[in-house]
Amino acid sequence: MEGDRLSLTALGDEVRSIAEMDDGGHRHIEYLPDHYYLAAGSLAMVVNSPHGGMPIR
Questions:
Q1: If you average pLDDT over residues 4-16, what whole number do you get?
Q2: Which of 12, 28, 36, 50 is 20 to 30 A from 20 (CA-CA)?
């Protein structure tokens, strides 16, 4: 991983929030022109909740 501390902390917080989703689901993390913590050229990823399934929210 590379990037400044603020950006890496934001990414870590994002992944932590996905891990804490207790009703399943997933989140797409990808670069957008106004994105505040991913650089242009970053690979997109989908992170699944460890609780699986589709969210009931």
A1: 89
A2: 36
